[in-house]
User: Fold this.
Amino acid sequence: MNREQAKQLLILYRPGSADDGDPEITQAMAWVQNDPELGKWFDEHCARQTAVRDKVRQIPVYAGLKEQIISEQAAKQRNASRRDRLKAVAAVAAIILSALIITTMYLPHHQTARPGPPVPNTLATFQSQMMAAAISGYSIYAATNSEQVQSYLARNQAPAEYNLPAGLQKIAISGCAIEFWQKGRASMICFKTRPLPQGQMSDMWLFVIDRSDVTDVSTIAPPQLAPLNGLITATWTQGDKLYLLGTKGDEQTIRQYL
Assistant:
């Protein structure tokens, strides 16, 4: 595999998906690690994928549509090649886009979409939204150490200066992501505490955001522990940063990482 072939493969790469286990993708990643110019292009590619994902999440979807598409495509694509899967995804996207256009055309002209209620800029809402992102899926930038993570976050205008608790410093880093919050950005550092099934990159998540981006945050020390969305969480502040750590388990589980 040469450099150009590696880039063509990585154009199809979707961060945080089953592509991470593809042998060809793994081989192409080796070029990213050793080619600074290709690495910069790959970072920008992953950032674009994250932006597209966030926009798609905002599109309203009819109840049951996701399950119908998944079940139909699973049956048709079980033995399909990578290129066939790509064509199928493009076809589904075209159908959804056409449906949205047709629906808009047939709505009475005097009707306008009413915006939903604004998301409260509170600590409780921030905690809930970040933990929901952790368990529902996200676009991950693969990395194995804090230097790679901080470099990526800094390039994408997310909090890159943070302090890991002593317990977390011993845990393997699997990557990072960026979650948008109100008018700011939260850094998401992903950890792997144990061997995980193929396609699952992490089982512990640390969110870091500027304290000023969450309106009702006061000094929180020591960390406050609480269950949320099926996870156990720890929340604390240090300097001008707010930290939120989440994983599966109980209070005893999470205390060992603080």
